[in-house]
Amino acid sequence: MIFLLVLEILSRSAAGIFNKVVEEQKIFLGTFTVEKISASPLGEVSFENLVWKNDAGLVMLEIPEGGFKVKILDIITQNFKTSTIQEISLKNSTISLLFDDDMKI
């Protein structure tokens, strides 16, 4: 029973990484929404219908299906850094990037 509880906690923490990364990143300004997100105890996070809209309301990113894998030790220690996300998978995605005169997104 305790083992199942630990696995559930790890799953929720892995999915929480998504929210933390989106909240703390400073490059892609605007809002992110995701219809569904789930995680396995092994650090595999999958999501559906992720949309990023910039501050002007333009859709900059649409990902019908995607996912990423995170380091289990980082989840356990709650020590999130850029190397926490190991790999990213995007399926049927549309990405639009607009650059200003200084080549900033």
Topology:
Blueprint: H1 2-24, E1 31-39, E2 44-53, E3 59-70, H2 72-77, E4 85-91, E5 94-95
Antiparallel strand pairs: 1-2, 2-3, 3-4, 3-5
Structure in words:
- 28% of the residues lie in helices and 38% in strands.
- The mean pLDDT is 79.
- It has 105 residues and is an alpha+beta fold.
- Strands 1, 2, 3, 4 and 5 form a five-stranded antiparallel beta sheet that branches.
- It is elongated, with a radius of gyration of 15 Å.
- The protein is built from two helices and five strands.
Share in β-strands: 35-45%
Q: What's the main sheet like?
A: 5 strands, antiparallel
Terminus-to-terminus distance: 48 Å
Tally of separate helices: 2
For the residues shown, what is the average pLDDT?
79
Count the beta strands: 5
Unreliable segments of 5+ consecutive residues: none
Estimate the global geometry from the Cα principal axes.
Answer: elongated
Share of helical residues: 25-40%
H/E order of the elements? Answer: HEEEHEE
Pairing-aware structural class of the strands and helices?
alpha+beta
Cα gyration radius (Å)? 15 Å
What are its keywords?
five-stranded antiparallel beta sheet, about 100 residues
How would you sum up this structure in a few lines?
With 105 residues, the chain is an alpha+beta fold. Helix content is 28%, strand content 38%. Strands 1, 2, 3, 4 and 5 form a five-stranded antiparallel β-sheet that branches.
